[in-house]
Amino acid sequence: MVKDGDHTSEAAPRLAHTRGWLSSGIAHIRGVSVPVIDLRTSIGMRPANDLRERNLIITEYNRSIQGFLVGQVDNIVNVSWTHIQPPPSSTGRSNYLTAIAKIEDKGVANLVEIIDVEKVLAEIVTYDVSISQGVLDDALVPLMSGTKVLVVDDSATAHSQVKATLSQLGIEVISCSNGQEALSLLQAWCDAGKCVTDEILLMITDAEMPEMDGYRLTKEVRSDARMANLFITLNTSLTGSFNDEMVKKVGCDLLISKFQPDLLVQAVQERLRRGK
Predict the structure, then answer these.
(1) Which residues of 93-106 are buried (b: 16+ CB within 10 A; e: fewer)?
(2) DSSP string, 3-57
(3) For residue 51, what pLDDT band results from cuts at 50, 70 and 90?
(4) Which residues make Cβ contacts (< 8 Å) with residue 142, sequence separation at least 6?
(5) Residue 169's domain is classified under what CATH number?
(6) Among 57, 107, 187, 267, which is most exposed with the fewest C-beta within 10 angstroms?
(7) 200-237 pLDDT per residue, tens
(8) Is residue 62 part of a domain?
């Protein structure tokens, strides 16, 4: 199973250069030339020998379209994120596993590994985390240094890229791997008598995560008077009117597309402007 999403922003992520394409060629799909990545090789597995048993999954991710060459497809199932759990802590952070799920098939429970496609693509394409000229508001820059931002995402790659961007401004990143972990941290601060907005400038959260997604996390924060005024930015690669409506429904302050440093900086600056 591949965790994947579509873009939501009008701007594509800036790519510094590509490296080590594990390409199996180009596929022409509906008039579009799509690069094909051998997913098995990308995650350290041996490539399948018989191409007749291979299948192609076409995905759109942050305004880029690519195909993943995979093995045989036994079943296609729709799984709710409520049934997806984080991987065991013993798996470490060097693998490509971002979550697991139990799938029932004819009374037999199968354990399915969910691959972090963000990590796969990050090892193929180097994302430029530099901040474009003219984006920074000189009046706000002094206010950024020493502040903290809570980043909630199940992808270690996403954490690294957000941290690489914000650290340029002297901003410290506090990391949580899912919504439940983040909510517990926020509640612990409140229970200790701390003001959440004194601890962090804002929270940047992914949409889809195991245990608790970004929508539910935002709803829980907004329903708690002790932290209801926390500035929340949804940082996602999902697209469509559904996502826009969910952002409005749960009360996010901003919606930005992943892996775009300028948008991350603009989110911080928007929070500072509202604070003033």
Answers:
(1) eeebbbbbbeeeee
(2) E-----SSSPPPEEEE----EEEEEEETTEEEEEEEHHHHTTPPPPS-GGG-EEE
(3) low
(4) none
(5) 3.40.50.2300
(6) 107
(7) 999 999 988 888 999 999 999 999 999 999 999 998 87
(8) no
Q: Please report whether residue 184 resides in a domain.
A: yes
Order of strands across the sheet that contains 23-29:
23-29, 32-38, 64-70, 55-61
Among 233, 270, 271, 226, CA closest to 250 = 233
In a domain, 186, yes or no: yes
45, part of any domain: no
Task: Express the helix, strand and coil content of the chain in percent, nearest 5 each.
Answer: 30, 30, 40
H/E stretch holding 222:
helix 214-222
Which domain, by its residues, includes 171? 128-275
Decide the pairing of beta strands 254-257 and 148-152. Answer: unpaired
Q: Are 131 and 168 in contact (CB under 8 A)?
A: yes
